[in-house]
Design a protein that fits this description.
heterodimer, A: 75 residues, mainly beta, Ubiquitin-like (UB roll), five-stranded mixed sheet, 35% strand, globular, B: 575 residues, alpha+beta, Aldehyde Ferredoxin Oxidoreductase,  A, domain 1, Aldehyde Ferredoxin Oxidoreductase Protein, subunit A, domain 2, 2 domains, six-stranded mixed sheet, 23 helices
Chain lengths: 75, 575
């Protein structure tokens, strides 16, 4: 299945800002996608799928948009 | 020497130094300004009249070596909201006043004539001096003139043209260590200083130190506290990207108010994001990290240079960039920086004024996305005090009334900032119930609703939002009393060593024995004091509501409306 992946803040360093249609096997999870990019789960602050917060073990679907943020804040 | 209250009477141009009443001893910062305003200001008074007072107070730990303790609080009855108001800021003034033994300054009365004044705070007290040279000038001219007259080490609290003209969005500007400006931004307190005909307050530098009851215990606690802040990953990201790192995550969550609150996502979000800003700053040899006061270990401020690598602005915050950017559909960070610098100079709140511009765009005064016209209006209309400039300078509600716009995002007449309450429901509770009108900093539920700090709570669900906002508003009222920057909360919410160390520092500073429960109780009592002032001023629970368009207009991408009832909102005060 094809997943769009967006990275933010320093997760972009040496990687990418956004890639559309990267292929993963059926049943892949955000955690599997994230670790495949060489990002440590301990560094991840927020995962969103289709603009909603999602669990690392969420079962991704065809054409999902996965957004991965490090631990950030402001205000 | 015990700290004192410094009173300035602008009616008869007299000053006095008073002992601190016993009831005020345990207060500092917001707790003290709100306590004094509640005690001395008639809630029904006209906020621009002689019976309002401007109260200035450093926090309980300001002036010590405690990390991030340089916040100063300003309190009065707000001319924008009609409620009690506290606005706090960084800069050098809090630490200098605390070292000079100042518990608070109370400025009252109003001069009869047209003359203007400045105040000079020295180790011997306050002098009132006539001021002519700087009337009609912006804040940066004040900073330069005070440096020429007194030297560049002085603390400064000043108003620009907006404060002189008593515009309801006028702020107070506070000099930082590099002679740039921070702002006591919200609620129009610059207009209150303008009614007193005080252009600026200069504070003498001093070698004096704040007394610490138990120095060893204080040092030990500060070490633990500082480590908790430095080790926190959010502190580290704030140092790199500033608060503007939020543009992309709030946009991704569908809560970035866009085009005067008609969408939750902005096509130009990347152009105005923290990531883009960081790249521009590095490319133009600015500084991604900058501290607004000595002892800050987070350094969320920055120096943003123009295309020729010359200084343009600093303290370039997410909410300011959102307001001028997404809300006005301006996707050019240089134009936003220009507007930010202009508003700092004029002395006007970047959130209120920019949201007012968004309402003006909807009203046909200018086009959405026209950043150049925004800058022209700031220079030629607001700074000059033209009729249009005064309408915009009195805020979003003022523009809505003048131009017949009904989609006006305000609560208690104060503009709603950077997080749409339809898509992030906890912050809607904060906007509705805050004692000071819509203000994200009063109870920053974004931490838990979006950022996964202090647990997580689905931003689109109604469940648990009132309790979340209540707990955060109570904690915030307490933190705002310590002189601490609110960004310590990210460490405090997730690092078990942080808050106990803060309480230990308070105890070591004053030789007392507070517990964590005492600090929570302090926060509760501050909120209740502020709420009672508002009730006495004529506010009711019906004022704790969001504008009706939030109930009726779904916002993309989630297509959600505000759906928390008035009865549910009212349970906020059940404590």
């Amino acid at each position: 299945m094809d997943i769009t992946i967006k990275l933010f803040a320093y997760f972009r360093d040496g990687r990418f800002k956004e890639v559309a249609s990267r292929f993963f096997d059926e049943g892949a999870t955000p955690q599997e996608v994230i670790t495949s990019l060489g990002i440590k789960m301990d560094d991840v602050g927020v995962i969103m799928v289709n603009h909603r917060h999602a669990d690392p073990a969420y079962c991704l679907q065809q054409d999902d948009v996965l957004a991965v943020f490090p631990k950030i804040g402001g205000g | 020497m015990a700290d004192k209250i410094y009173r300035v009477n602008m009616t008869d141009l007299s000053t006095s130094i008073e002992d601190v009443p016993a009831d005020w001893m345990g207060h500092g910062g917001r707790g003290l300004t709100s306590t004094i305003v509640a005690a001395e200001v008639e809630p029904t008074c006209h906020p621009l009249g002689k019976n309002n007072k401007l109260v200035i107070a450093p926090g309980l730990l300001s002036g010590t070596t405690a990390a991030n303790s340089g916040r100063i609080s300003f309190g009065a009855k707000s001319p924008l909201t009609g409620t009690i108001k506290e606005a706090n800021s960084g800069g050098t003034a809090a630490q200098m006043l605390a070292k000079l033994g100042c518990k608070a300054i109370i400025i009252e009365g109003m001069p009869e004539g047209d003359g203007w004044y400045n105040l000079h705070f020295t180790a011997d007290g306050i002098t009132i001096n006539e001021e002519t040279e700087l009337i009609g000038k912006g804040n940066f001219a004040v900073v330069d003139a005070v440096a020429a007259r007194l030297g560049d080490k002085h603390g400064i609290i000043s108003i620009g043209q907006a404060g002189e003209m008593k515009m309801l969005a006028a702020n107070l500007s506070i000099k930082d260590p590099d002679s740039h400006l921070r702002s006591g931004g919200r609620g129009g307190l610059g207009a209150v200083m303008g009614t007193k005909h005080i252009k600026f307050i200069a504070i003498d530098p001093t070698e004096a130190k704040v007394e610490i009851a138990d120095k060893d215990a204080f040092l030990a606690a500060n070490r633990v506290f500082t480590k908790a802040l430095v080790d926190n990953p959010i502190s580290q990201a704030l140092g790199q990207y500033g608060t503007n790192v939020l543009v992309n995550i709030v946009n991704e969550a569908g809560g970035l108010p866009t085009r005067n609150f008609t969408s939750g996502q902005f096509d130009g979000h990347e152009e105005i994001s923290g990531e883009t800003m960081y790249d521009i700053i590095v490319e133009r040899e600015g500084k991604p990290k900058h501290n607004c006061h000595k002892g800050c270990v987070i350094q969320c401020s920055q120096i943003y240079n123009d295309i020729n690598k010359g200084y343009k602005t600093s303290g370039f915050e997410y909410e300011s960039i959102w307001a001028m950017g997404a809300d006005c559909c301006v996707d050019n960070l240089d134009q936003i920086a220009e507007a930010d610098q202009l508003m700092d100079d004029i002395g006007i709140d970047t959130i209120e004024t920019s949201v007012a511009m968004g309402v003006a765009m909807e009203g046909g005064v200018l086009e959405f996305g026209d950043g150049a016209e925004v800058c022209r209006i700031l220079k030629d209309e607001v700074a000059a005090g033209s009729p249009l400039g005064r309408i915009i300078g009195c805020g979003a509600g003022s523009v809505g009334r003048a131009f017949g716009v009904t989609r006006v995002p305000v609560v208690k007449n104060q503009a709603i900032p950077a997080y749409d309450p339809r898509a992030i429901k906890g912050i809607g509770i904060t906007y509705a119930t805050s004692t000071q009108g819509a203000d994200h900093t009063m109870g920053y539920t974004i931490a838990t609703n979006l950022l996964g700090v202090g647990g997580s709570l689905d931003p689109l669900s109604k469940e648990g939002q009132v309790e979340l906002s209540r707990n955060l508003q109570i904690a915030t009222a307490a933190i705002d009393s310590t002189g601490m920057c609110l960004f310590i909360a990210f460490a405090a919410l997730d690092d078990a060593t942080c808050l106990p160390a803060l309480v230990d520092m308070l105890n070591a500073r004053f030789g007392i024995g507070l517990t964590a429960d005492d600090v929570t109780n302090l926060g509760m009592s501050i909120l209740k004091t502020e709420h009672e002032f508002n009730l006495a001023a004529g506010f009711t629970n019906k004022d704790d509501r969001l504008p009706e368009f939030f109930d009726e207009e779904p916002i993309a991408p989630h297509n959600v409306v505000w759906d928390i009832s008035g009865e549910e909102i009212d349970t906020f005060w059940n404590f």
